[in-house]
Specification:
mainly alpha, single chain, 2 domains, binds zinc ion, elongated
């Protein structure tokens, strides 16, 4: 194993990734959530390169999305009453909950 074959952790679940081989083609798959590289490659390094190139790009995009959502949530609180149950406040609470779950998964 050379350092160029080192695979980054899965951007979705942080799981460990492995190179798979079949009929002289290679791809990379996360053992935990099953996400795979899009293309089949003729060499291991090529498959590793695609995985490593796409993995951080995706998690960066998700991180930016989470930050943007957090900023929006901070700026938009529908009502002053924390226990209000109007539909806007319900949606606000739901979005905050989903956001917290996504942030937890990203760690
Ligand atoms: Zn995964
Ligand atoms: Zn309300």
């Amino acid at each position: 194993m050379t350092s160029e074959l080192k695979l980054l952790p899965c951007p979705f679940c942080g799981g460990e990734a492995y190179t798979r081989a079949y009929n002289d083609t290679f791809w990379v798959r996360c053992e935990r959530c099953g996400v795979e590289t899009q293309d089949l490659h003729l060499t291991r390094p090529q498959a590793a390169e695609e995985w490593n190139r796409r993995a951080p790009a995706r998690s960066d995009a998700v991180a930016r999305l989470v930050e943007a959502c957090k900023a929006t949530l901070r700026a938009w609180r529908p009502c002053d009453d924390m226990r209000c149950e109007c539909s806007s406040c319900e949606q606000y609470a739901e979005l905050a909950e989903i956001l917290a779950a996504v942030e937890k998964e990203m760690q």
